[in-house]
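[worker-b] picked up task from shared queue
[worker-b] task type: protein-ligand structure
[worker-b] ligand name resolved to 2-acetamido-2-deoxy-beta-D-glucopyranose; SMILES cross-checked against name lookup, match
[worker-b] sequence length check passed
[worker-b] input payload:
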Amino acid sequence: MFKALSGMSPSAHCVFVFSLCYLCGLIPCKVEHEDFELDDFKKETKKCFQKMIKIKNNRFLVVDEEGLKFKERNKEQCKADDCRFNIQVYRTNDIDRPRGSAVILSVTSPCKQTYMVCCEKNGDQKGVSAKPLDQPLPDQIGRSKHEAVFYMELIPGTSQYRFNSSLWCSWYLSFEDGPEAALMKLVLREVHKDVDENCSMDLLTC
Ligand SMILES: *[C@@H]1O[C@H](CO)[C@@H](O)[C@H](O)[C@H]1NC(C)=O
Ligand SMILES: *[C@@H]1O[C@H](CO)[C@@H](O)[C@H](O)[C@H]1NC(C)=O
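[worker-b] inference finished, payload out:
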């Protein structure tokens, strides 16, 4: 064995010694696993863009201290920050990854609080909320399912997008009539079809 060792290059030597230690249980398994995390998300620092999210009837997704809703907006009102969403792309190594890019959506309210769009459970009901964000978005997420990560898919044959939750398989950002006619609520809806008009959103350049 020592004869074999002396004939090795220094790096091969290291690998050999490392393997030996590993086999002997001297190095905990955690070290090995670091290269094997296939499921996590990594922030693509250069891939962040700002868009307005529009649905039918000229309604735009906006945030205020009460949360997220769709409101009618004219061109002038669209200059406000509360409808300009930052779409941060995350890289994923998952081979079986779903359609689209993994993204986190965040937006700043008129009171200068930044929020991120998150899936949440209210009793048995699945929903969406605006979660206050006091730090920059995480650089890395060590899980394949996360409350704020959505897969942004281009709907085939259109220029519209839909957002598939990474937390709950086949649940999409969607909208529903709210208590007031002018407002529509942002909700999460389970969808198994390729096209559902109630999940289709336009992304407009700010
Ligand atoms: C939606 O995302 C889930 C993961 O949360 C995935 O299993 C499913 O295949 C995705 N749907 C599509 C149409 O990509
Ligand atoms: C989409 O929304 C409209 C109005 O809110 C509703 O009438 C319709 O049934 C919804 N479609 C689906 C597929 O849920």
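[worker-b] attaching auto-annotations
[worker-b] The two ends are 67 Å apart (CA to CA).
[worker-b] releasing lock
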